[in-house]
Amino acid sequence: MSENATYRTAGAGSRDVAVLGGGSFGTAMAKVLGENGHTVHFWMRDEQQAEDIRLHRINKRYMPGITLEGDIQPTTDLADAVRKAEVVLVAIPSKAFRAVIRENSQVFRDGQIVVSLTKGIEEHGFKLMSEILQEEIPRCRTGVLSGPNLAAEIVNRELTATVIAAKDPDVRRAIQELLGCEYFRVYANVDVYGVELAGALKNIYAIVAGLANALEMGENAKAMLITRGLAEMSRFAVSLGANPMTFMGLAGVGDLIATCTSNKSRNFRVGYAVGKGKKLDEAAQELGQVAEGIYTLKLVREKSEAIGIYMPLVRGLYEILYEGASINAVINSLMMAVQNSDVEFILPRTISQ
Ligand SMILES: NC(=O)C1=CN([C@@H]2O[C@H](COP(=O)(O)OP(=O)(O)OC[C@H]3O[C@@H](n4cnc5c(N)ncnc54)[C@H](O)[C@@H]3O)[C@@H](O)[C@H]2O)C=CC1
Ligand SMILES: O=C(CO)COP(=O)(O)O
Fold first, then answer.
1. Whether residue 37 has pLDDT greater than 90
2. 120 CB within 6 A, ligand 1
3. Annotated catalytic, 276?
4. Fewer CB in a 10 Å sphere around the end CB: N or C, the chain?
5. Where's it found, cell-wise (predicted)?
6. Catalytic pick among 84, 127, 202, 264
């Protein structure tokens, strides 16, 4: 899309929306909403950052060079932002998600629409963000936004599609109307658990893909890793109750392609740095932004072992990142493993072939 293209609100007129979280993705969604003619109460915890955005219309730390247009009002007063908003979008990293919502749970209203944009899993209890919303603010109507949504592309108005997953049709419709525009399409799904889990799981395979790229693996190898990643993540998610067809959609295969093939993905970049010999801590430190896959990997490895789901890529990546295994040794062991069926929803993985 050209910089000079005109933008219009996709549906109803101007609405008040709160975006919680002043990082890359919060900024990207605030920008879409602002351009769509909505009033954005953009909450962040750092007053200096809020003041800077107020004055210069640029989030210097997370989106340098990107001007925020429209009625975007940076604030450090979360209660005020939520009270003024009809709809709340939450883009806070999974590690801080519950604490922020719990601390402010009283300010959310009955029936208020609250949607998670976060692609991660809570450390204790393996809770997804929509489950945290239901526990902390059960009187709200909740949903999840996920899909191939690299923030760095959205802020440049590059064509993008996303998925709003919610049981309540009003939530789905509201988000489609608020965010949809010439460069941003919003598809709908009712499989909240599948869409949300897909978004969290793909971060693991983006790290694997970054590693493969650092090792200059060929296209066959990269395609194998992405496709076997898809098999592994859908096997795991389906065992927990997700719909396997969700993984054929934007939130599954779509997001996997975007993040496993682009160094705009922070998870991919962490994998790439480790593949080039950096220690995990060093790679994460240099990134300076969240790479949820680092934490998701630990939780998924633990959970898959507890429930007996075969996830060789998760196990291999865990050994590399957390147990100091050599990358070559892990690759050799993966290549020597039993050769299973391709699509196990057609030919079961474990029967004799
Ligand atoms: N950046 C992207 O392309 C996309 C990111 N996401 C997801 O969005 C979520 C947020 O990620 P980004 O904005 O990209 O991360 P980021 O690393 O760019 O920014 C994180 C933001 O969270 C804030 N934060 C951290 N701890 C906090 C706390 N305790 N209280 C309040 N604010 C806190 C930081 O100050 C920062 O503003 C992640 O779960 C990510 O997976 C989803 C789709 C795309
Ligand atoms: O989820 C994302 C794009 O869909 C962003 O991925 P990263 O967090 O790896 O940058």
1. yes
2. yes
3. no
4. C
5. Cytoplasm
6. 202
Q: Is the pLDDT of residue 4 over 70?
A: no
From 29, 208, 255, 287, give the residue whose CB has the most ligand 2 atoms within 8 Å, as the site to mutate. Answer: 255
- % of the chain surpassing 70 pLDDT: 95
pTM score of the predicted model: 0.95
Q: How far is the CA of 149 from the centre of ligand 2 (A)?
A: 7
pLDDT at 3: 45
CA 103 to chain CA centroid, Å, is 23
343 C-alpha to center of ligand 1: Å?
34
Choose the CATH number for 198-335 among 3.20.20.140, 1.10.3720.10, 3.40.50.300, 1.10.1040.10.
1.10.1040.10
Domain 16-190 coded CATH 3.40.50.720? yes
Res 8 pLDDT > 80: no
Ligand 2 atom nearest residue 290's Cα: 8
Amino acid at the residue 65: G
Mean pLDDT of 103-113: 98
Task: State the pLDDT at residue 99.
Answer: 98
Which residue did the predictor score with more confidence, 178 or 124?
A: 178
Ligand (nearest to CA of 23): 1
- Write down the pLDDT at residue 5: 46
**Residue minimizing CA distance to atom 7 of ligand 1:** 118
The answer to whether the Cα torsion of 160, 161, 165, 171 is positive or negative is positive
Nearest Cα neighbor of 33 from 181, 186, 179, 183 is 179
Q: What is the pLDDT of residue 13?
A: 86
For residue 24 and ligand 1, the question of a CB distance below 6 A is answered with yes
| Cα 93 to ligand 1 centre (Å) | 5
CA distance 292 to 284: 10
pLDDT at 233 over 50: yes
